[in-house]
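During the no-cost extension, the postdoctoral fellow (Dr. R.K.) reprocessed legacy sequence entries with the updated structure-token encoder. One reprocessed record is reproduced below for audit purposes.
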Amino acid sequence: MSRNIFCSGVYMNREYSWMLFNDRVLDQAEDESNPLLERCKFLSIFTSNLDEFYMVRVGSLYNQMMVSPSSKENKTKLTAAEQTEGILAETKPRYKRRAEIWRSLKKELKAAGVKVMGADELGEKQKKQAGEYFVAHILPYLSPLVIDAKHPMLRFANKSMCVVYDLNKGDKSMIGLLPVPEKLPRLIELSGGKKKSLIPLEELIRGFGAYCFPGYTVKDSALIRITRNADFETDESDVDSEYDYDFSKYLKDKIDMRASLDVVRLEINTASDKIKSFLIKNLGLKKSRCFTVADCLDYKFLFSLDRFFPPEVAPSLKYPPFKGRTPKSLDDGVMARAMKEDIFLSYPFDNMETTFVRLLNECAESDKVRSIKITIYRLSSRSKVVDALLKACENGKDVTVVIELLARFDEESNMYYANLLAEAGCTVIYGMGNYKVHSKIVSVVLEDGDKVRYITHLGTGNYNESTAKQYTDLNIITSDDKIGEDAVAFFRNIAIANVEYEYNRLLVAPETLKKGFSELIERETERAENGESARMIMKMNSLTDRELIEKLIAASKAGVKIDLIVRGICCLIPGVEGITENITVKSIVGRFLEHSRIYAFGDGDDAEIFISSADLMTRNIDKRVEIATPVLDRGIRKKIRGMLDLILADNVKGRYLTNRGKYVKKEIADGEELIDSQAAMLEKR
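Re-encoded structure tokens follow.
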């Protein structure tokens, strides 16, 4: 199926646009300007992204085909079946490209001193050594199975690998299964030679797993991995409405369902017709969902390669280390500074632990602080944010935590933290009805003499110390009374499940964010129609909402200059004459994951700038609780505008979307300065 079906006029299908984003991730695995081990990580990220895409997006299309097969998406008018067929066709060349890049990376790794080998590449001495290691250290942990009347088909776990055997015993033909244990080390080092030789666990099992079937003749074998549909919906109306119903128990049952949902993809490393036919039949799959993969099925092991290089070599194969800064203005304390002026933080260039986490700890210890309220979507595995909240509760503060249990793939972690916080005495709220709470806000209420004062933190990313070192996010800490009053009202409305509220300064989805942005876009459109200067710069992860896209198109037609910086999905095709010719779309994929959302309306010093937790996706602005906050401080607005200008000037990591629906790198003129926006911000920190 031609990829042209994914583009219609000025619209691009969101699933195809995501695949183009993942192509840009794969570009980084191929880009020789990146250090070798970082390129390996990009290859792994590409693969993990593709896994989640099949679990969630292809899973969602699978569900749609079952429930509403004739419905069409609202931009390219494709049914779920047509989108799925196109995705399956588009996946094959990406597997081929990944295999080619992996072959190239293997050669470079070998030249650098580490050889990653498959079972078929072992020499005689290595085979002997690998076999002995297998028998001593792997075989005791294996659980082989032969399928017959007493042993029905094994229930393959999602994303787990298994070796499938075509076996004979006498005149009987059987199928053997040998799951690859997930708890064992993924890379095994073989001794001997100047270079280190490594073999992935699944390859060791593939090469020697026949030991598990004595008395059988192995005719053929295949390493496989299946991907299951992980897209399930939760609705408050599905559960018992009694006041004491525990939603977390209902959610736990839903999470457990993931292990048994339908298979949406089969990956297999051989073209063996018998094994493939057996699996397709027993998994209830169509042939088009089965992919013969020439390279590895899972590349997570690439993240651990650095430990096999000598300590004097490994650093040169990775990005130079850095530490986020702590602004000198905070030397006397974050609370004290916030009461005097707005504080601007930009992760990972600023250090989350010595700024934001420090603020929470100061609030936990302060005699002035009466209450701390926070929204939580994703946390790190050992959260210092939670530690500070527990300390605050122990010190007698009123601590309220709105924790979103429906953060996909973090549900169990969030349930754990919710229970921990509740047991300590914090008030814990599980989101708001059928709206996911994706906002990033902390409200601190304190007594300052006879006055009630506020410190409010608003950000674009999660309160997660780990991702704050890897994602670019913006944060503002302010003592502005109007924003403080809005923050208090926000948490009050969350507690009573009220979305119908207009705030003084904050734009809050689903009620006022879309409306507020629409009015600002219309204002710039009117300015252009009146012959005035009109400009918009918007930075986000994804743009899919048709209503807002149509407003951007109208603005472009009126002459508004619009720069869109969209890391991932963009359903708007720019540069179409007479329609979107005043719109540019740029994507940055680099060392850090671009995650900040910035919306600037107008030009010069009078531009209104918002930072937000929301992308311009229908799910975010219509179906989630999101916040956009105006940047009030003129100096902070200037800093943010400078960051946007730097990103727009990026000619190293930047890619432009053309009016043909392709992303291209800008042609660099002789003598033109090379600008890598992330590297430049690292130097400035």
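The first helix runs from residue 14 to 30. The CA atoms of residues 327 and 350 lie 8 Å apart. The remaining legacy entries will be reprocessed before the final report is submitted.
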